[in-house]
Amino acid sequence: MTQEKGTLSEIAKLFFKLGCIAFGGPAAHIAMMEKEVIEKRKWMSQQHFLDLIGATNLIPGPNSTEMTMHCGHERGGVPGLFVAGFSFILPAVVITGILGFLYVEYGQLPEVEPFIFGIKPAVLAIIATAVVKLGKKALKGWELGVLGAIVLIASLLGVNEIIALLTAGVVGTLYFTTKSKFDVSPKSILPFLFLQAGSATVSKITALNVFWSFLKVGSILYGSGYVLFAYLDAELVMSGWLTRPELIDAIAVGQFTPGPVLSTATFIGYQLAGWQGAIAASVGIFLPSFLFVWILNPLIPKMRNSKTLGFFLDSVNVAAVAVMVAVLFVMGQDTLTDWRAIVIGLLGAFFTFGPKKLNAMWIVAGGALLGYLLKLV
Asked: Is 64 among the domain residues?
C-alpha cells in the first residue's frame, strides 16, 4: 500500500508520459505501469497492484485505463484518480481527434505502418517482463499454478476472458475455502452486477445522441478492443450511422495510436458530429470507467482482508496473469512473422531482460525507428 500521498502534478506527468508511449494494448500498458509505479516509484506493493488488476478485470471498461485510475487513487486519492485517468487518455484523444479531422477533410489516413511494424515486436518484451514479475507474486502454491494453467489453455482455445476469470475465481474460492474448512457466509460474497442494454436506431445524429450511444457502450463493455469493435458494429453500422469501411478505418486508428484503444470513439465521434461529436463520444465512453473505479477502489482492501474474498482475489489474480500469457502468445504468433520482426523482438528482450535495461519509452521509440529503417531494406 502507499506510504505517502503524492502531488497531482507528479501523477499527471507520469500518466501523460505513459499515454504518449503506451502502444501494444492493455497487457503492454499494464506492464509499463508495473515498471513505473512498482519498480521505480514503489507507490504500492506488488500484491496490491495484482489485486487491482484482478478486480479491474471484473468490471466493464478498458482495463489498462482503469488501472491508471486505481494507481492515481492510491497515490493521490479521488483527485489523483481523475488526474491519472485524464492524463493517460488525453494524448490518444487529441491524436485521434486530429486524425478524425484529417480523415473527414482528405478522406485518407497517413502512412504509419512501418513504424507500427517495429513497435509491435518491441512491446512483446515489455509484456513478458511484467508476466514474469507478476507471475512470481501470483503463484502462491501449486494449486494456483494448476488453476492458472487451466485458464491459459482455456484462453488459447478461445474462451471469453471474463468467463475464464470469473470461473477461476469461483472455483478457487470453493477449493481453498473447503481446504481451510472455513464456512462460507452468503453475506461475504461480493455481488457483481452486469448491465444489459440493447442497440437503438437513432435517425438524427446529434452530439447528445453520440454521447448516449457511447455511454451505453462504455457501461457494458467487457473484454478486448476487438469486443469494442463488435459493439460499435452493432451500435453504429447496423443503425446506419457509419459504414463498415469507415469503421475499419477507425479500428486502424485505434491500433496505431498510443494509449487506450477506446480513443477510437473520438475518431468516430468527429466523423458523426464534428468536434462536438468527438468530445461527446470521448466523454461518453470513458465516463463509466471513472465511476466504476471510484466505487470499486475502496472495496479492494476489504476484499483482501476477508478470508473468502482473499481466496477469490488470489484465484482471479493468477487467472489474470494467465490471460496475459495467452495474449503474449497470440501476439507473438501474429507479430513475429519475418526476420525483421524477430530481430526487433530479440533486441527488445535484450534491453528488457539483459544487463543494459532500458526504459519502456526508449524500447517503444527504438522499435518504431528500427521498424521504419528495416522496412527500407
From this structure: yes
CB of 176 within 8 A of CB of 311? yes
Is residue 199 domain-resident? no
Closest CA to 331 of 122, 160, 129, 185: 122
Give the DSSP H/E element, type plus range, for residue 36.
none
Question: Residue-wise pLDDT tens for the chain (377 aa)?
Answer: 444 566 899 999 999 999 988 876 777 888 889 989 998 899 999 889 988 988 887 777 888 899 999 999 999 999 999 999 999 999 989 988 988 888 787 766 666 667 767 877 887 887 787 788 778 878 888 898 999 899 999 988 888 776 887 888 889 888 888 887 544 443 433 333 333 334 444 457 888 989 998 998 888 776 555 556 666 777 787 778 888 777 767 766 776 678 787 888 898 999 898 999 999 999 999 999 999 999 988 888 887 778 787 788 788 778 878 887 887 888 788 888 889 999 999 998 898 888 777 766 688 778 888 988 888 87
State the Cα–Cα distance between residues 293 and 11, nearest whole angstrom: 17
For residue 108, give its domain range: 8-191+294-375
- The verdict on pTM exceeding 0.85 is no
> How many structural domains is the chain composed of?
1
Kindly state whether residue 198 falls inside one of the protein's structural domains. no
Closest CA to 22 of 109, 130, 133: 130
User: What is the C-alpha R_g of the chain?
Assistant: 21
**In this structure, is residue 260 part of a structural domain?**
no
